[in-house]
Amino acid sequence: MTLEELNQMAAQGAINELELCSLEGGFYVLLARTEEGTKPLLDASGDTVQVRSITHLRELLHFTPPVPCVMVQQVVHDEMCGMRDGPVEPLRVPVGLSEPW
Q1: pLDDT at position 78 over 60
Q2: What is the DSSP letter of 40?
Q3: How large is the average pLDDT for residues 24-52?
Q4: For the residues 22-49, what does the mean pLDDT come to?
Q5: Which of 7, 27, 37, 73 would staple 22 via disulfide (CB 3.0–4.6 Å)?
Q6: Does domain 3-94 have CATH number 3.30.70?
Q7: pTM value?
């Protein structure tokens, strides 16, 4: 999904949530949750957009209609130590897209 498609779908109310997924290496990828599933944000050449920070995300989505957004980060410590029984859920932190800080 390109940024233009994301903006169009957000304007139509077809985006349920945006997930900013934290990955190893200090960057993020943006996923859009829709009724059809989860789709990554792609650039013009079809490559996944790497988001550098929340500030970069806000700049990218400056013209996007308001959509709920969360940062998703796996709880690596729990995975490494193996302290919990059952599946380990990722940390999900709400992100305000309109706030400057």
Answers
A1: no
A2: E
A3: 93
A4: 93
A5: 73
A6: no
A7: 0.81
Is 63:98 a contact under the CB 8 Å cutoff? no
Mean pLDDT of the region 39-63:
94
DSSP for 44-85, please give it.
TTSPBPEE--HHHHHHHTTTSPP--EEEEE--HHHHHHT-SS
Between CA 71 and CA 78 the distance in angstroms is 18
Identify the band that residue 89 occupies on the pLDDT scale cut at 50, 70 and 90.
confident
31, two tokens: 């996923």
Q: Find how far residue 77's CA is from the centre of its chain.
A: 21
Indicate if the alpha-carbon torsion angle 78, 72, 36, 2 is positive or negative.
negative
Q: Where are the domains of the chain?
A: 3-94
